[in-house]
Design goal:
By secondary structure, the chain is of the alpha+beta class. It contains eight helices and ten strands. A four-stranded antiparallel sheet has the order 1-8-3-6. A four-stranded antiparallel sheet has the order 2-7-4-5. The chain has a two-stranded antiparallel ribbon with strand order 9-10. The longest helix has 27 residues.
Amino acid sequence: MSFSNLTDDSKNSCLGCTKRKNSLLSDLSARELKILNKNRYSVSYNPGEIICKDGTKPLGLICLNKGKVKIVRRRLNGTEQIVGLKQSVDFIGFRALMVGNSCLSSSIALEETNICIINKKDFFKVIEINKKLAFKIIQSLALSLIEKDSSLVNITQKHIRARLAEALILIYNIYGTNPSNGFLNVLLKRSELAGLANMTTANAIRVLSSFNKDKLVEVSHRKIKINNLEVLKEISVFDR
């Protein structure tokens, strides 16, 4: 991150954030929002830039204000596994922040991205004031653990067709589709799609071509349209 990435956000604030209503911070009072906003600043990133690198501690509560982000871990062989996808209003490095640890994964911008960073002490002060927020955080962390358990089962037990079908459904659920053409509303390289489905790039290309041949999806370079979501769901569940 360079200082040239710092954006002039003098017209923006936690109080005026239109995306806040969809986040854990939705029920905060004006006083609590002022505390969060006191030392807040925003940073912009270009596609491919690292927002938070594995082994480093988050500078504060990182709120994804605009853009799309992938959360990645490096395998022992050097390849990249995508362990999460983030969209606007999501937090980055949240679990590491809450326990004071370094991040186990790196967050990388998939497109032009803007984040807001809220001072850690200010955030923890608001948690002490607002017990409802504290409970919502506990629920969020518990749900995250459940999702990770489910993901681990899928990675270790499902075959590659089921894994790729599930990856496409995940992308669909998180980013939706472009209303103008029906394609998934994010552009991923084949290697990124493979990393999300925990398979080799060659296998991802082969299975995606099979889905395309069966007219379950339509592929145009990096753009993918899901034509039959229900059949993909069946493949992801029944592993056929």
